[in-house]
Structure of Acyl-coenzyme A thioesterase 11:
Amino acid sequence: MVCRFFYTRLKSFVLLIHSCKCDLTVCRKVPFGRPVYWTSLLLLHEVACPASTRQSRVMSCEKGDGDPMEDPLFILESGEVYRNPTEVKMSQIVMPCHANHCGELSVGQLLKWMDSTACLSAERHAGSPCITASVDDIHFEHTIGVGQVVNIKAKVNRAFTSSMEVGITVNCEDLFSSCQWNVCNAFATFVARRTEEGKLKQVIPRTQTEQMEYSIAAERRRMRLTHAEIITDLLSSNTAQLGECQEYQGAVSAERTRVESVELVLPPHANHQVSTFGGQIMAWMENVATIAACRLCNAHPTLRTIDMFHFRGPSHIGDRLVLKAIVNNAFKHSMEVGVCAEAYQGAGALRHINSAFMTFEVLDKDRKPRTLPRIRPEPVDGKRRYQEAIARKKIRLDRKYIISCKQTEVPLSVPWDISNQMYLSYNNVSALKIMAARSNWMLSSEKNKVSLYTLEENQILCFKVETHVTVPAEQAFHLLSDLRRRHEWDRHYQKCDVIIQADEDDTIYRVATPCVSKGGKGQDFILLASRRKPCDSRDPYLIALRSVTLPTHPATEDYTRGEVLCAGFSIWEESNAVTKISYYNQATPGVLPYISNDIAGLSSSFYGTFHSCNKYLEENRDSLAVLPPSDL
């Protein structure tokens, strides 16, 4: 009965794909409204559709659409509906005193409310005072008018030793129409000043969404810790290629946009720990940045994005806070404003508190971006800021392109280069974690202690193969990480070469697979392999793969260039000698013919492949795994 059910479902799924001319929607929406593309991994029978014949289209998420990642009500044993113990909600009606000159909620005021809500959530979990350490990039999708209601929700996604990540979601509510829409999402890092046990207690995820955010929080933290160093390196490499600044007729002098303002920190500006409220500092920074943007365009600008806020030191009551802003560069429809905050007391030296880069637009009466005047930078520092703004724009687009995925059409194989390596790696691992966090997998069949699960949702079929081996988890991780040895247990791997060893965690391979039909050509893939060790005992080892493109390795006549969506290994240590290995794959039209018989119970090739994998791992359990050598 199980086989017949899945055969019927699979047949319907294949017919649907055929009727849509193999046009699959590959967009997934995750909590806080951030779509992430399930970039894929080549595994097992991961023969994907040829790049030349695939068309990818993204499903637009209209207002009121259901969120596929939305958890059903979680009922506790007591009969009560579960609510995250760290969750804090704030609702504020926008009054004229909160609005700017356009009758819209000031972003500075919104930042104060967001920071306050997130801080209360962090302190609820820590049981002690907390301070804002950083706020990740924020993209404001909509403005909020006077009379509308702002609903802010914050909860702790994960706690580390002394810091924790708090997820923040903001939506707007129109009381007259009962409509609600997303405004922005953010992730803030808070540090507990002291705890009774010396370190923070762990967050215990209870729902599917909480498990997913808990898992991805470790990846976001990894990117956060290396952010400053990587950005510095990218700016150095990118600005060196830009050459001299272009001269534009009628350009506005950058010095005209310079703003400097001082604020005296008074008790109303402080939090309950007598330190300057982080949200207040962000609001003051937004204020001077808006003035600088106004001076360029002689109009009222709209703030669209804020790059990561990173608080470098505290400020206290009695400090004089000096806020400086200047337009670094103006592009066709947007401008970047650099802003910094420094503090001093009396005749003391200036202390650097915070820096940020904000992107503004000017909208016309139809709410479309206007063309902006160009900037004429001043010598030396002005030209440096001008060129760095161009480099940051590219980095910002890469980040939005790969992580946010707001564009309407995205190729599965994103071009790889050093400037987007960090974001591609983040997306690669996060996509696998999202798939692994799903809780509605259905058992299709089981044989020789190898289980095959399927998940069909929104016209997308995913499958999972699960088994146990008597090999330590770390050794299994090292053995499976090296794709050059894949042919030893998977007959679908013909050849695998290392192209680039980007760093110790990311490697780019070229994989060749044999022809699967008479008279046809084999396929080759350019794959980014991202490896992750556990952050703590609640994390698995991960190996994530996805297709990328490299100009040095174009498609050849001998092979059909294939692309893969999302697949990978999740390796859990269940004991010192027993390891659970789960393999995930998001199917494509090209892979369906190779898995349909297994899912319908008419073939057992998957079980043979995983039996070979188990044998390979056990035979090499005591061998020294060697990672690919660096080609850089």
Q: What stands out?
A: DSSP finds nine helices and 29 strands in the chain. The CA atoms of residues 164 and 194 lie 13 Å apart. Residues 1-69, 405-410 have pLDDT under 50 and may be disordered.
